[in-house]
Amino acid sequence: MKTKTDKRGIAFFDLDGTLLDNHLNEIPESTRRALDLLRAHYYVILSTGRDMDTHYSVRYKEMVQPDAIIHQNGSKLTIGDELLFKHTVDPDLLQEIYEYCTKYGYCIGTSIGSEDFFINPEKKAASDRLFTKAVKRNFVPFEEIFRRNIRVTALSYAGNLAAEKELIEARFPMLELYAFNGGAGADVVERGFSKAKGLKTMCSHYGIDPADTFAFGDSPNDVALLKAAGTGIAMGNAEDEVKAAADYVTDDIRHDGIYNACVHFGLI
């Protein structure tokens, strides 16, 4: 159902590396100021590979206070406290992934609520150490997913992506791995789901023309989002393929990239 609005459009934001400086584990003050000013005329929507309702992400949701969230690259959509859409991975596919990763020593898993279910969790911990100041995981054996009949929305990978990406995607052609953390981690996304698809759903819900949207990102999983938005903006710290897909490249996250882009486009 469309929402009647007097807003001018929607601003979509990736979290890690775009709003959140992961090395400092904080959202820059200039970014917070830009978000506060934006709300007067634009919906603010998070678009991330994370499930923002998990124990290690919910604090950032509270910081940003978005109008809506595209979680896990479009596999889950929420508006406020309302669940708009949620995909679940087929249990048979999950069993195949578990057997394959266990056999070859790969790390794939998911975080749900306050628990982190990963195959070879030590690799996830090592990836976290590269990306953030500390590891704050509550690892639970992946097998508990099957024992408790837990429904999984999306998955995450950790390890040497350069060496393992093609092997995993060849075995599971229905999956795509989008790198983050310099290739030490990746979002594992079922084909057909993307941040771009989430953008279209949110535009329909709010009655906003996609031409009146702005999207900010820095990682490969943001490319489709930037292309689908009316204006795609890459952070100065973004990977080269993201910059190539964008309409505009702003400054990096530590040099007021969000604020400066909002000023440049007259959003604030």
List the strand order in the largest sheet. Answer: 5-4-3-2-1-12-13-14
What is the third-level CATH name, the topology of the largest domain?
Rossmann fold
Q: Mean of the pLDDT scores?
A: 94
Based on helices, strands and strand pairing, what is the structural class?
Answer: alpha/beta
- Under CATH at level 1, the class of the largest domain stands as Alpha Beta
Inertia-based shape: globular
Number of helices: 10
Question: What is the end-to-end distance?
Answer: 29 Å
Radius of gyration: 18 Å
* H-E order: EHEHEEEHEEHEHEHEEHEHEHEH
**β content, as a range?**
15-25%
Q: Report the major sheet.
A: 8 strands, mixed
Low-pLDDT stretches are: none
The share of residues in helices is 25-40%
Notable features of this structure?
24% strand; 14 strands; Hypothetical Protein, Haloacid Dehalogenase-like Hydrolase, Chain: A, domain 2; six-stranded mixed beta sheet; alpha/beta; 2 domains; eight-stranded mixed beta sheet; Rossmann fold; 268 residues
